[in-house]
Write a structure and sequence with these properties.
Layout: H1 3-6, H2 22-46, H3 55-74, H4 77-80, H5 83-115, H6 120-123, H7 130-137, E1 146-155, E2 163-171, H8 174-178, H9 183-187, H10 192-235, H11 257-268, H12 271-275, H13 302-311
Antiparallel strand pairs: 1-2
Helix pairs in contact: 2-3, 2-10, 3-5, 5-10, 5-11
Length: 328
Amino acid sequence: MTPSLRFLRIPRPRTFLYLMSLRTGTELITLTVLINKISGVYGLLALLTGLELSPLQLSMYIYSCLALILTAFLAPHIRKQSPLQCLALAWFYIIDSVINATYTAAFSVTWFLVLSQHHSAMLGNTGPGGQTMDDLAGFTSPEFNVSRVDVVATPGAELTGGQDAVAVGQPGNLTTSLGAPSLGHGMLQVEGLPSLMIILGLWAIRIYFILIVMAYARGVLRMHMYTASATRLYTDSGTDAGATANPFAADAEEGQGWKGKLGRVMVKIGQSYWLGTEEDNSWARGMGGKFRKSNDAEPTGPVERERRRRSGTGPPPPPQPLRVQELR
């Protein structure tokens, strides 16, 4: 790959924060997903207390519960380095990020409109979940819209004396005092700019997490590809050890049944990233010490014995036991 095209490919980190392996980073990222999705359970429990939720909020809590179950099922396979489950975890994290971005955008728009003092009482809800934010924020849609309050005191009519105080509110103009209610106006409020910076910062971290999970799943796939190619080298003649084959191919062990079909579909999208050739073995550095490929190491075990048996260079057969005839 030329240097000019190298900048256009998907980044492939080798470590997590330059301190930990990709496997450790993927485990920590999965742990954050589990903690985040637990909020869906508490959100559904809040319905028992009588809290009213918008349909969008309810759908988010239901999705979080389903995502919690799926993540808990896939998490143990990170250490097992199962190719199908690790690849599924990577794709799930990508899809979950897109769904979270959609929910975040919807609720952010609502929050900025609430900050802009949108007349929710006159115009209806300001957006998805706007009524809930209105009830909990406590500073929007006031019962009386006044700019200042004058206290008028008059002598009391009772014999004991004293004074009667009356609060008189002077009408205020919401549009002229706060500006025209709009999304842009809400983003420019004192609370809006920090909220926007926090959202952008968290999403920059999220994109980095996506690259880490994808890189680990790619490393697991390549580990299985090189292991399979090394096995074929010593069992079948004329096989290239560096060849990268699809681990979910129809004739492979991982390609049988519906799991194989699912794996082939997931690998087909972005096949050059998952199964593309690699100039070196740098992908193995982030596998947490579980895989080390060495071209100089001689194979041992059943594979080596099978190769020697086929080539006729195996060890000589054991000598026949000596039979001593008994002397009579």
